[in-house]
Amino acid sequence: MYRGIFVSADSKYHGELIISITDVDTPLALVALDNDKSPYFEGQALEDAQYRFKSDNAFFTIDVSDKDNVIVLGSDLESRPIHIRLVKDEAVSRATVSLGTFVDSADSNFAGTWDFISTST
Fold this sequence. Notes:
globular; 8-stranded antiparallel β-sheet; two-stranded antiparallel ribbon; mainly beta; 0% helix
């Protein structure tokens, strides 16, 4: 399992990304957005630890050949680039995601997200 951050470049979509990849089941992903919606993605194994996940209006492709450095090869949601950061969630090193947003009180046009991913190691 992998856990991480999923946020569109314009911050319209912001949430925790949870990915399940096993040898016996279809790879699946869920984004728990901060607007209480949770889009699902069905995955497909490509080659050499690469996976492509698709939903009705989005996709992302990842390479998990190095579990400590998951690489995002491409992403899009409604013609918006998606920023994704993932870590391996293992029994010996549980991953936790904390989401945050901000708006500058002096300049409301200056806003964004700040997010943390921690592991138990």
